[in-house]
Design a protein that fits this description.
This protein has a five-stranded parallel sheet, sandwiched between helices. Strands 2-3-4 form a three-stranded antiparallel sheet, with no helix packed on it. A two-stranded antiparallel ribbon has the order 6-7. The chain is globular. It is an alpha/beta fold. It is built from six helices and ten strands. The protein has a domain at 67-77 and 110-260: Rossmann fold (3-Layer(aba) Sandwich), CATH 3.40.50.1000. InterPro entries: HAD-like_sf, HAD_sf, HAD_SF_ppase_IIIC, MDP_1_eu_arc. It holds the Pfam family Acid_PPase.
Length: 263
Amino acid sequence: MPRKLTFPTSSSSLSLASSSGGTPITPTFSTTPSSLSFSTLPSSTNSPFPRLDLPASLSDPSLPFPRLIVFDLDYTLWPFWVDTHVTPPLKINPTHTGATDRTGEEFAFYDEVPEILAVLPYLNSPNKIKLGVASRTSAPSLARELLKGIHIPPTASFADEDGNNNNNHITSKKSSSSATKKKVAIDVFDGGLEIYPGSKIKHFEALQKRTGIRFEDMLFFDDEARNRETERLGLTMKLVMDGVTWEEVGKGVELWRSRRHGG
């Protein structure tokens, strides 16, 4: 049965699954924009972002990583169906963390997604991981508008106190303007955006042609089991039930490694 988006009458932030392995909790969408909160818990000493509490599978850049990580949008990066729950026009909020539609409802990413999109590309430094989108929504222009309006935090926010990570893969805040500025969410997906109705086989064939990356080097996060059909191309799909979190990303990377590298 399709899940329904519910808006509680009282303001509360989105519930999160613990990135350190807690039991996932079904997110509920708030009537007020959720604030970004970044963990300061210690991670592995091998992590390129020591101030983040990353899952163990993501903390060692010497381990293999996918070259392209692709995300679905609805109920994967954000907790709603953009083509049925959002009533245009959209008004981006002043903090660029979400938007309000014509009915006054507010829409944003799942809480951990901005942090994930900011940091994930650099976990395999110096080999940047490309990010992409594969969505079958029937409202592609509305989805793109929301992606253009939301900003994600600068990667330098997650470096150590000197503005550098342990492995010197991120330059200082003073010398790297790109690392210290917020980015428009749509610009993070340098692997490409395939947003239109139809089988996601077509989406991935387009992503492969654009990037030249082998399907075997791709990891895909989606909330619908029917999209496992994409695995016949050779990629790995991780099914997520309550949105993308660090815990889910870690499990996805572990799954990809087990299939591609036997570990």
